[in-house]
């Protein structure tokens, strides 16, 4: 160290220059690290790099910590299924953990609704959609009316085969259902009679002797129907059954009534009788429906066609019905056919 004025060498202990007396201005002590850096410039650069590098990592770590905090906060505050809270967009279908239906409800299309069978007739149920809870359609309807479900609503309808429904149906006659079939006395079915091929024996019993020779008349059973009053729309039907031979004959409505079973067939027609006015709907002489008849008789004709060597014991029935006035009568008879 030298004097700043006379350039005399000085020691560390000198406070004044021994030559000129100038006060020695000592340099302030520097930190060891700075002296070390000033003496070694290459180490200064390295030190600066270490400082910059350490600050960089501090920023990186800070950013990471901040992102973690944001993520945790977002997770905690973002609605999610299973968090025990019902939030917008959640329903019993998308999140049953949060949106729970009651014990008497079920989830349908995202909504909790009462289900049929829970013992309660709820607002979305009625007697047709859920009779288990709401009961069945019932009430006072009269003899021939009944309740039924029309879609989801209770309604009434007229019963079939019920005396009092305004229709004279199969199984009803004037004596059993006057309100539908009219009072007895419009017409009556009389005892049938035979020709040369059919023999009557006993009440409503007939025997047919088979004969298929050319020129021999077809066995024909004539059943007279006596009209006490004029009538319109008069039809008849028949059936003949031999269970042992599995013969089941039922008339089919056409210009002639035809029933065929195996090798046996019957044809039926209306034939005129003693009535002064007799008009058929579909034929001049024979047909299946009388359009109009005055008082008097008409004939129901049954023609039997049976193959040779056949023996039959048939229980038959004829049923006659008019539409105006409404009336019905029937008669049972037996036909035995021998070869």
Q: Could you explain the architecture of this structure?
A:
This protein is of the alpha+beta class and 339 residues long. Among the domains are: 105-158, no CATH class; 178-338, Immunoglobulin-like. Helix content is 16%, strand content 33%. It has four helices and 17 strands. The strands form four sheets. Strands 6, 7, 9, 10, 13, 14, 16 and 17 form an eight-stranded mixed beta sheet that branches. A hairpin with a 2-residue loop joins strand 3 and strand 4. Helix 1 (32-39) crosses helix 2 (41-77). The chain starts with 31 loop residues before the first helix and ends with a strand. The relative contact order is 0.09. The mean pLDDT is 80.
Topology:
Elements: H1 32-39, H2 41-77, E1 105-108, E2 111-114, H3 131-134, E3 145-150, E4 153-158, H4 178-181, E5 187-189, E6 198-200, E7 205-209, E8 220-227, E9 231-242, E10 247-250, E11 257-261, E12 264-272, E13 278-280, E14 289-293, E15 296-306, E16 312-323, E17 326-338
Parallel strand pairs: 7-17
Antiparallel strand pairs: 1-2, 3-4, 5-8, 6-7, 8-15, 9-10, 9-14, 9-16, 11-12, 12-15, 13-14, 16-17
Distance between the termini: 167 Å
How is the main sheet built?
8 strands, mixed
Instruction: Report the CATH architecture of the domain at 178-338.
Output: Sandwich
Instruction: Estimate what percentage of residues fall within beta strands.
Output: 25-35%
Question: Which CATH class of the domain at 178-338 applies here?
Answer: Mainly Beta
Structural class: alpha+beta
Percent helix, as a range, is: 10-25%
| SSE arrangement, N to C | HHEEHEEHEEEEEEEEEEEEE
Low-confidence segments, ≥5 residues, pLDDT <50? Answer: none
Tell me the Rg in angstroms: 58 Å
User: How large is the count of helical segments?
Assistant: 4
Average pLDDT for all residues: 80
**CATH topology-level name of the domain at 178-338:** Immunoglobulin-like
User: Could you tell me the number of beta strands?
Assistant: 17
Structural shape: rod-shaped
